[in-house]
Amino acid sequence: MSFSKLGISTHLQKALAAEKFDKVYPIQEKAIPPILARKDVLGIAPTGSGKTAAFVLPILMNLKGKTETKNRHINVLVLVPTRELAIQVEEVFRLFGKALPFPFKSFAVYGGASINPQMKSLQNVNVLVATPGRLLELSESNAMHFDELSCLVLDEADKMLNLGFKKEMDKILSLLPAKRQNLLFSATLSPEVQKVEKLILRNPKLIKVKNETDDLSLIQQLGYFVKSENKGPLLRYLIEKDNLQQVLVFTSSTYQADLVADKLRKNGIDAMAIHSKKSQGKRRDALTNFKSGELRVLVATDLLSRGIDIEFLPHVINYELPRSPKDFVHRIGRTGRAENPGQALTLITEEDKQHFRVIQKKMKRWVTMVDSENIDLKSY
């Protein structure tokens, strides 16, 4: 299947080719036609399955002739749970929006940044990507209007509900015109998501693609038994031994993320930490540099893991274990995505052994273990 056979315009096909989007993924093949037909869609798909392009491309095509609207009257609203995801989704709209043969503007709004510049930038916006809280703040200030809204997208709806945005979402839905296209994407079809589905979707096209757990075969997993005091040297050894690039390291706290990144830098390995206590500017810069390959190591907490959406991320290292097996699968699912193999390494102390057994049992995969006692870490 090709994008041309899915009905994607020649303008967007050229942009896709320029960005090396030469393969149609299952979620795109199944979602693009009904979205182009302006039907409601319920898509159950993991992060990294290609779902952003699956709704961005047909939405852009459906905007033809609708972008010359009154100022501050947006055409499309995309709700997302985190600032990082808002930035990434808007980047995709902007990237392909440049190829359109008519005027187009997209913009992202989110908390943790000054509201006044965002308010001023909402002029002539066609597609607005927003986190719920900031959207309501802007709406209460009459910074935008929804009278001409033709499409609503809820992206990562399960995460949005888990983060407690139900009341905000209900309030936002009450502001929108009743006649509109609705697209709901979620990694899981939880009871909460099903309630939202019944509330907003009309005879939706149901689309399901494989869960992350089905794709673990693409991930080469390896575990290392290590003493707590040797975790830092072992991490540096693993990165340097095979000259790993684009390494995502997970820690369990913001304090530990900063500590690990600082130790890596002091030992000559380019690294930055990304977590909720960092300013939005620093988080954005770190993620941008990491995605482009300029930053070698990004140290993150679980809270921000969903915002890290990189198609060809090769390496994930669990410096510390997460609380739940589901979080572990989500972490290592940052690699081995969209049919690209990846590597996940996990450091296990004596205190971690039992918890790691539970994780392996839950994900139904046993990880090959290496005893780091046999590794010379003196120079690391």
Structure commentary:
- 38% of the residues lie in helices and 17% in strands.
- With 380 residues, the protein is an alpha/beta fold.
- The protein folds into two domains: 200 residues, Rossmann fold; 162 residues, Rossmann fold.
- Helix 6 crosses helix 8.
- The radius of gyration is 22 Å and the shape is elongated.
- The relative contact order is 0.13.
- The mean pLDDT is 87.
| Strands side by side in the biggest sheet | 3-4-2-5-6-1-7
Terminal-residue CA separation: 49 Å
Oligomeric status: single chain
Average pLDDT metric: 87
**Fraction of residues in helices?**
25-40%
Q: Any idea what the CATH superfamily of the largest domain is called?
A: P-loop containing nucleotide triphosphate hydrolases
Work out the strand percent: 15-25%
Short structural description:
This protein is an alpha/beta fold and 380 residues long.
Short descriptors:
380 residues, alpha/beta, Rossmann fold, seven-stranded parallel β-sheet, 14 helices, elongated
